[in-house]
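Let us practice reading a record.
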Amino acid sequence: MFPNHTPECFPKMGEQDPSDRLGGDPLKDTKENGTGSFSQFSSSVRTMVRIRQKYQAMKKRRLEIASVSSQSLMSPRSTSPKVFTFENIQDPISSNPSSPRKRKKKRRTRVLYPSNSLRAVPTKERSRAKNCLYLLCIIVFLQVYNAIENLDDHVLKYDLDGLEKTLKREVFGQQEVADSLLGHLHDYLSTYVHNKPLVLSLHGPTGVGKSHVGRLLAQHFRSVVGDDLVMQYFVLHHCPTDDDIPQCTKSLDSHVSEMVTQAEEKEKIPVFIFDEVEHMHRELLDTLQDLIHPKNNNEYLNAIYILISNLGHEDITKFVLHNSSVAVSGHLSLIQELNPWLRGYLERYHMLFLEAELLPFMLLEKSTIMDCFIDEMSREGFYPDRSHVERLAEELSYYIVGEREFSHTGCRQVVAKVNLL
């Protein structure tokens, strides 16, 4: 198996072969010992082969480590940790060039929450406009609240509580009308700035208390706002003939203009009371309508107009007598049923009553006439004997409908009867 070694096969200049260092020459040992065996020689050879293979493997591994380190130095260093994903795994179908390529489906991004009980939604940046809106709402609320608080302060100047007591004490049988009148006045006088004037139209037959209410209103408002801001206009007195109508219209216009201008300076609301409106000429009604419905001047909007007339009194009487079966507590419902018809009649009469609040006065019953006698006799210093009062009330004429009696002239003749005592 091993031929004779020639001098070229061995290293020169004292170099020694690794096999000599490990175990010497096996042939020489065999010759010298004479008793060496072939098995010892083969084991030595196998040992050298294993050492050589191990050396080659270690050398190859060093080369691989050196090449890997050089590649890592050349590539950019990543700071993020490596995470295992399935993206780098090749699909056997897609890796095969012969198979048809399929379009990849886009994956929808899903929001993963930490738990089902608490879900964190990405927060958006809050707009600064919301803070301004909240501040504006607070300011408006404070302004409205302040205005509501000041309503009572403004209406206290007119002493409507005192007017209510006066109407209850002086006016008989017209409690519903008095309550409605006070309600309109309270709502209008609660504020100073308005978009239209308040127009109240008092209607009813003779002697039911219309002119008396007008006098009470004039006295009350003169005491709270002054004589110069209250006008009580009687048509038959201020404009008795038709020849005076042009001068009357001019005088009425200038007088109302002066009063509203003066009231604007004092920040008060003037009151205009027109009695006997049924006797007003057409030109006077047109002038009054222009004053009530101004086009350009805002100071005319802060005013109270009270119109007193007996327009439609015949139909009002018929309506009350026809519905006399209604109980006394049903007077308010009668007024509500009467208002639509009365408004249609007044609008046909003149457009002045188009936006007026109607207050119809009902007929007075016999019991109310007796109250008028008692009050007047007490004023004149007479003792109000019940039998005497009933005897005086019997001298008046009445509409008799069933068990109810309604006076023809109301309380108008009461003063004359008491003066004869």
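A brief commentary: The chain has a mean pLDDT of 79.
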